[in-house]
Amino acid sequence: MLTSLSQLPQRKACGPKLAVLTAYDYPTARMLDDAGVDLLLVGDSLGMVVLGMPDTTGVTMEMMLHHTTAVCRGVTRAPVIADLPFASYLTPEMAVANARRLMDCGAACVKLEGGVGMLPQIRAIIAAGIPFVGHIGMLPQSVKEEGGYKKKGKTAESIDHLLADAQAIDQAGAVAIVLESIVPAVATQITGLVKSSTIGIGAGTDTDGQVLVTPDLLGSFPWFRPPFAKARADVAGETLRAVREYMADVQS
Ligand code: KIV
Hints:
Layout: H1 8-14, E1 18-22, H2 26-35, E2 39-42, H3 46-49, H4 61-74, E3 80-83, H5 92-104, E4 109-111, H6 119-127, E5 132-137, H7 143-146, H8 156-172, E6 176-180, H9 184-193, E7 197-201, E8 209-212, H10 214-218, H11 235-251
Parallel strand pairs: 1-2, 1-8, 2-3, 3-4, 4-5, 5-6, 6-7, 7-8
Helix pairs in contact: 2-4, 5-6, 8-9
Bound molecules: 3-methyl-2-oxobutanoic acid.
3-methyl-2-oxobutanoic acid binds at residues 22, 41, 43-45, 83, 178, 180, 201, 211, 213.
């Protein structure tokens, strides 16, 4: 299991694949860390699966700081990735200042969405000595501009963009790149091209690792689960059962 980001190149070369999960609170982070999960991501998906927002664009820096602090309190081993939320990295200066705030909460690295268009921000973060994780493919923070969540890598133009984005982020010095909702063959091609570790979600099985939104894995957010996410527990069902049993006990 991973104890430091410096082990990522060795894991890319020799395996095993990275198992990455999201965490938004202390108890979940502590359990995932104890279980040996390689990397924990305080994803801005928290806006949807914890705070009930329609998408991630309402997540603020204050929310990310609050949840990153809680997660880092629960972790003694796994490096924590913290998301820079929507509109928190409009300029390189803003990106560095907000990345520092997340690092001050205990994060090991920060992630933002975008490729070539975000290079000034990415380079500034890395130049400030902050380990960086890229995120390309389907970008949830752009859902309004894009008019929905769309798989990437289906056309020659889209493939060219993805390859250019991945190579730009890699050459800037990212430690890892999340590949979200990308045609599997393209994710495989990117994984072979870059030195950074690729972490896939809805991008096939041939990436250097996989990330899942933990409530999707646990079945604790029953109202929506993406088709590629296999629920391996039914926490929602078990919660309802326990609550009903308690109510029946109290009310009998
Ligand atoms: O916010 C998040 O949970 C993410 C994953 C979907 C990779 O960025």
